[in-house]
Fold these 2 entries.
Entry 1:
Amino acid sequence: MPTFTAPDGTQLAYRTHGDGDPVVCLPGGPADSLYLGDLGGLSAHRRLIFLDLRGTGRSAIPEDASSYRCDHLVDDVEALREHLGLPRMDLLGHSAGANLAIQYAVRYPNSVSKLALITAGTRAVGIPITGETRRELAQRRADEPWFPAAFAALEAITQGTGTDWEALNPFFYGRWDTAARKHHVSSRPSNQEAVALFGADGAFDPEATRAALGACEIPVLVLAGEFDLNSPPPAMAELAALFPGATLALQPGAGHYPWLDDADRFVAATAAFLS
């Protein structure tokens, strides 16, 4: 697996899939980028470059734990662009990785050709997602056999009386089948310190970020999953509205990992935007 050196000396790793023009892909979590696979076959259209964020996957644990903060990770993405020799790059961020992609685009707007935000996290722009929004969305899955236990856990968590987050897992997939269960295990972050410090105090400045996005001239895709409890469609619509001309795509029947729920539909929408 190829590596490069971050500005603070930390050795970072990345992996590639496919051929053609590159797309740099930023995982959520922060977790090992392997959970992204090859994004449902998007590698048949573009060369995908998956960064393992510091302290995850094959990337080294940094000496300074404060460097796990999202705004500091922007420097790692820029170091990867320089390492790859790309004057400009297409950038894709999933979940929490979308926060990083957004912050990179704000700091280095001339280095981004296109920006794809897949079931995006919204902390960088300060879009709140209420418990009521999640409850209303969750109730659309009432016919699923796992729903009663999962919804009871959601109710308890929303009310501040429960902590069974594992019971919510089915809500993040369009189908809670064997493939989804296997994927869930592989997507779990293993570095809890990196997770905890990703959004530490000072990591985000939503007001400044929103102002910058209002003048953003980069083509943007915001892709939402119809049933995604983590990044509900109304929040994704609000995120898209922050950009002057973003494209909002809603993938029917999908959860938080749309390339797993319907690879063909996901690839068609994403490849068309990136082409």
Entry 2:
Amino acid sequence: MKLRLVPGVVAAVVALACVSAQAQTAPGARTMRIVVPFAAGGAQDAMARYLSTKLAERLGYPVVVDNKAGAGGVIGADTVAKATPDGSTVLLATGGAISIAPHLNAKLPYDPRRDLVSVALVADTPMTLSVRAQSPYTSVADLVRDAKARPGEVSFGSSGNGSVSHLTGELFAQSMGVKLLHVPYRGGSPAITDLLGGQVAAIVTSTSSIDPMVEDKKARVLATFTKARMSAMHGAPTMAEATGVQGLEVPVWVGLLAPAKTPAALIDKLASEMTAVCLLPETQERFKGLGAVPACGGPKELDRVVTDDFQRWERVIRQGGIKTE
């Protein structure tokens, strides 16, 4: 007796087989969500929207951006940590909620090392130590000399207590053996406003934030917390060059993380596609316009950066007795 299949059934079987094949070679859902733990309009948001478009072209289905701002990135990170691990939800992460928050918040609703897994390293958004154009400090040595003469009186502004700019400033102070007066602000813009007004002596902020002020000759970059000089920073030295001290390179990384238990095949597929997008000449130019340096790598590269970051901020926070609660 021969088995006869109705044409409609044949079509359904074929369709099911295609769906099954796709599930094995691409992230699981027909729509993928990139959670951005910051409000719309910032550099990370712009980066995510560009990446979502390029990923959608490669994956063949929509990739949307979902802004989940609040608590220094903790709300967005928690959203992804608790999401279904099927490749449909990823986090465009920075260090704040992943390698800083665990040392400052004993009641963090997730464990980044247990509940999230690395997918891809995307970019670096470098930090600077900057002063206003009229500042008497023409070098890092000038600032350090004054800070040693007046302990706790030379001020630096940051984008907030416990932020990466705050901790980078503390790392600098600890490495130089000086005590600086930290002045936290609600974001980089008000900190820059007070820098230009002379309310704070210096500021630790991103290259993208300070660059317009440098271009307008309202500010100067004393040094960058990078391994190599940045052409966009008009010849400013690295911290290692300016001080002779190693270990002051601070990669302010941006990367993709997924919920733990996401199948390895989906992680590998998404990492491959993300790296391909990252290496595009168009991406290089777009990131440069956002003040970011492309840093294209897979899960191992991101794991290494996050581990180093986690250990660095643990040391700085412990040594400085820093608390935010």
